[in-house]
Amino acid sequence: MNKYFLKGLAALGSGIAILGGLGAAIGIGNATAFAVEAIARQPEVADQITVTLLLGNLFMLTTVLASFTVSILLLKIAKE
Hints:
Helix content is 91%, strand content 0%. It is mainly alpha-helical. It has a single domain, classed as F1F0 ATP synthase subunit C (F1FO ATP Synthase), CATH 1.20.20. Helix 1 (3-41) packs antiparallel against helix 2 (46-79).
């Protein structure tokens, strides 16, 4: 295949991989909004809600890290 075609595909794949981070950011925003709403309704369980929110955000951020890693690797391939 053409060298430039492969570089273009790698750059395109890198852009698509970044969309994984965008989806996770939207998810974290929604989770935080609902957690704040839940704490406003039941302040006595704020500690449990906060722990659950932080654990969920941690799992979402691992997907961001994975998509960022894939994106960087694809850009490295495109640079060669």
